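quick one before i forget lol
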Amino acid sequence: MVAMESLCKKIASLPINASKETIHDILEPQLKEEISRLKESGRKDHKPKVDVDVDVNVDVTPFMVACDKSQSACLEYFISLLENETECNTTWTEKVRVLGRPLDPSPDHRNQAVHYAVMSKCPEMIASIVKLLGIYKLSDHRYQDDGNNNNNNKDKNIPLHSPFKNYITVLSQRNSHGDTPIMIASFMGESAMIELWFKEMLSFAKDEGLVWEKCCTEIRNLIRLENNSNGSALSLAFGHGHFDVVNSLIKERKPWDSDIIMSDGFLLVNPSDIERATIIHNKATSTLKNTEKGEHLELKQNKVNDIRRCLVMLKVSCTKLADKRLKELLIAAEEDDQKRISRNECAKKKTNNKQKQSKSSMHNDSQYKAVKTDVDLNSLKDIDVHVEEEEEQYSQTVATMQPFVTLNDGAVVSRKEKEGYEASLIQQEVEETARIKNQKNVTTIQNLLRDRYSQPTITTYDSPEAMMESLCIDASMLLLSPHGMAMELSPCQLDVVETVLKQQLSSVVAAKEIHKRLMSNPNVKSNDNNDLII
């Protein structure tokens, strides 16, 4: 008989809810006997064959039997045994051969200890399995390729793996059907079990200093896992009308690292979930209609009512999420508008301050000239020469200390560039004045838009002027922000504005091409009708 076989039989024969002391008194002699026998025989295989619940011999581990028999104290005894390196005078390898590993699968649909714990309705045993997993990871690293406890050269201060990640790993284990522990709990309607797991995972994540959003993402991915039949924890709970489980999966939570009162739930309901739930509800309703009157009719009617209740919960949750996202988008748009307005106000304040400074300097110059007129005429020339020298020296000092100046539009240029820039501005103003004087018909932006739409190339509308007046389109609408357009314009008005802007964009591209030809060919001229002549 292999070492684990007799130990599994001892665990199966334990009294219900045995204490840790009772388990210690019963299992320790058997454990020492099996380890001594293992040392003498030197056998390497450790897969036992023991009858647990049925008359079929299956390969199991003591962890599986303890979870199947709801012996939570037995797992605590194993934890103390594995943590104590000198317990039973055994090496780590010998302990593993006798006890197996916490995530070993069984031939019974490849269920693991965690699956048996859920099916036995012992959710507190999951925390023990998580702790066992951390001990095994740490010990495997310490005693890697070493069958003895002579590990003085090993690092004994290696930190345990993250309990939160170990918890996610344990609850992500699948059997041959692809079912995870949280799927089985959802199928059974164990909402209290699921809430306990969420509470313990959040506690571990908070102690480890994890960010709330990262923690929610890990749990959300765990809940979204699907089995071989494409069933998830949500669909299994919904299909059996367990609205308490559905509420646990989708209800809002309180984050620990944010000022937000309530955050989104672990599971974000999307339209595909609503569609899938509607199909399940319709199928259950049709099955109820085809059911004949009998003792099971009332049970099926209650199940359909529970499914309908779950469907309403999902629709409400999906609607709330959509409204929340819409509000967030509107708030973000308003913040962008406020930032833009504040930037414009700051620019205006800078411009006003510069204008005030220029006016004050001009006022000081006038006072200085008034003082000069009161000076004795005989020394006027000497004073003028002295003042001119001081002004020249002052201007040179200022030019040395401040080689750059800031223009009214906020651009920073050198003083020489400022002179050229001001000269170009004067020239542009002169040219613009001459152009306006020579222009026969001064048109507004609204008339330009009407002229643009009355060109033969645009045939979208029969009467552009009638169309613009009917849609109440004004040129100022082109200057609205995205949020302003969304609030003020209708879809038809947005189409017209888009057409206008596209037309103007094509005109800008054509103007650039004309400008390139003018710059590249100096022989190009224009006549009085603004037609190009080469």
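fyi Strands lie at 404-406, 412-414, 525-526, 532-533.
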